[in-house]
Every structure is written in C-alpha cells, then in structure tokens.
Amino acid sequence: MSVKSPSSSALDYLFLHSLILFAVMSQCYGQGSIGVCNGRLGSDLPSEQEVVELYKSNGIKRMRIYDPNQATLSALQGSDIELILDVPNADLESLQSDATQWVQTNIRPYFPATKIRYIAVGNEVDHENGQTSRFVPFVLLAMQSIYKALSTFGLQEDIKVSTATYSAVIMDTYPPSKASFKDMSFMGPIINFLAQTGAPLLANIYPYFGYIGDTEHIKLPYALFTSPEVVVQDGEYGYTNLFDAMVDAMYVAVERAGGPNVEIIVSESGWPSDGGLGASMENAKTYYKNLIDHVKKGTPRRPRNAIQTHLFAMFDENQKPGAPTEQHFGLFYPNKGQKYSDISFNNL
C-alpha cells in the first residue's frame, strides 16, 4: 500500500497550528511565573545594577518598583525582566489631566529595552485608608491620562495601565462568593476601564494580615498553605488555604463590578520573618515556599489558570515605616545573602 506524502499546504497548516498551540500554552503557563517586589526603603541596600544582577542570577523574571527610579530602569535594559512600574500616590493629582511628559520621561527612553509591562497608578488607595483616602479622586483620572499618553506614542497595547488595590476594598469575603466592592462609585469605573482596555487588576494579597486580624477564626495552617483538608466550603468550591479564598473573593467582586474577563495579577504577597505575631523565619519560609509552588495551580474558581504573583519583597528594609514587621519581609539581606537558602526561583 502506498503512503501519500502530506501536501505543502497541509504541512503549513500543521506548522501554523503548532505555533498557535505553543503561543496559547506559553501564555497560560508563563503567567504563573514568580516576580519579586523591589522596595528601596533601606539605608544599606545594594546599587540598582547589583540588584538587577541578583535578580538575573537567581532566575527571577519579574520585578515591581514603586517609583520610576531612573537607575533601576536603566539597569533593567536588556535584562529580559518584566516590570510593574508604579506611579506613587503623591504624583496622581499632577497626572490627572496630562501625563504626556511623564511618559516622555519615564517610559520612552527605556522601553522596549526595559520590558515595562504594567503601570500601577497608585497603591492601596481606599476611602477608608487614612493614609491614601485623599488620592481617591485622582486614581481613575490619572489612569485615563496615562493611557491617553501611551496611545499618543502607540504603546497602549504593549504597556497596560492599572492600579494596585488590596483586600480592604472588598466586603463580605466569607465565603468568597459573597464578596463585593465596598465603594462601587470608586472601584466600578476602574473595573470598567480595565475591561475596556484589556488590562488586569493588580491586587496585594496578604494572608498574614488576615491571620493576625482574626486569629480566633483564621488558623495558622490555613494561612500558610499547610492545612490538610478543606477549611471553607463555598458551594462547589473548597478552600484549603486563605490565599485562594482572598484571590477568589477579589475575582467575585470584579465580576460583580462588570469585569468578568478582567484578570487578577497578585502585585504583592509575603510574610514577615520578625517583628510581630506569627512573624518568624520558619513561618515566612513555609509561606514563600508553598506560595511559589501553589500559584502554578490556580484557585478553585480559576483552576489551572496560573496566577502571576509578585513576592514582597526582595530585601529587608530598615527604613520602612509602620509596624515593626514592615522591616522584615525580605527574601534577601541587604548584603545580597539569601535569607531562606532552600527557596529556589528558577524554572518558574
């Protein structure tokens, strides 16, 4: 029996199909890679170039910085490290009408050699947060202004504009299916903007703060990914850890606000090694190791949808204000020594 060779058109089709499948698989699984937030509130931190080299030598593929630090933006050029670039809260008001100069100064000289992927317009702005409430009127306006400026230079598809929010903006989170935004007049238009522009919502997710805020009902194993069984049953969804419950509560709130297709990227998550209740080297190591392993799997509401997650933070920061724990979230010491020697960031 003779065997016919496939035609060139058939081979072309198979090749194209393989490329498409590879691209889809790369997108689905690549999103789960781990990043690390690069805070600079320390008196003894390495230079920006040294920090980038430390990321590279440890296989860390994503970074978040909290202001457009020119030295960091320059050091990242050609590194292939993907970046979340923050607009500090204090700058939001000045950008609400025209962000052209901001984009000219902080984006155009560096992109695309520096792989800026997202701009976080404000961090944890909330009506109920005494430190950030005054910035509420400016968040959406600044987002729209930066998007318009990016569009002027044809960059609006390459760099997505979002804001970094946190769990305090949602209510009725137990069980996650009841969650909604506390202030729809604030978050509703933001979710609508994200849906229209195809941008994700950035969310800081901290089981640590959930745990210390309610130790009566939230037990340590549930917060550290070490519970052997389902702790919260929410209809068909069972939760063995608080991280999943917090992420899914955010997804539910986003859906209720009209953004069923808006992705959530975890822009911060961490556990302190000292300074307060539950803060220890052992607990922090357990949290980080389990989080790195877990985010590849998705959540009960988004199974197999890997969660792009940024660990907080690269270094202990001895000048960080707030509770004593704030100075002890680092994965590395300022001398570049790794705090938890058996945590690996490679192949994520």
Description:
- The protein is α/β, with parallel strands linked by helices and about 350 residues long.
- The chain has one domain (about 30-330): TIM Barrel, CATH 3.20.20.
- The chain is about 35% helix and about 15% strand.
- The protein contains 10 helices and 14 strands.
- The strands form 4 sheets. An 8-stranded parallel beta barrel has the order 1-2-3-4-5-8-11-14. The chain has a two-stranded antiparallel sheet with strand order 6-7. The chain has a two-stranded antiparallel sheet with strand order 9-10.
- Helix 2 links the parallel strand 1 (about 35) and strand 2.
- Helix 4 (about 100-105) crosses helix 5 (about 140-150).
- The longest helix is centred in the first third of the chain and has 23 residues, at about 10-30.
- The radius of gyration is 21 Å and the shape is globular.
- Mean pLDDT is about 90; it is low at about 1-30.
- InterPro entries: GH, Glyco_hydro_17, Glyco_hydro_17_plant.
What are the defining features of this structure?
348 residues; alpha/beta; TIM Barrel; 8-stranded parallel beta barrel; two-stranded antiparallel sheet; 33% helix; disordered N terminus; GH; hydrolase
Shape: globular
Q: Which structural class should the secondary elements be placed in?
A: alpha/beta
What is the radius of gyration? 21 Å
pLDDT averaged residue by residue: 91
SSE run? HEHEHEHEHEEEHEHHEEHEHEEE
Low-pLDDT windows of residues? 1-31
Keywords: Glycosidase, Hydrolase, Signal
Family: Belongs to the glycosyl hydrolase 17 family.
Protein name: Glucan endo-1,3-beta-D-glucosidase
InterPro entries: GH, Glyco_hydro_17, Glyco_hydro_17_plant
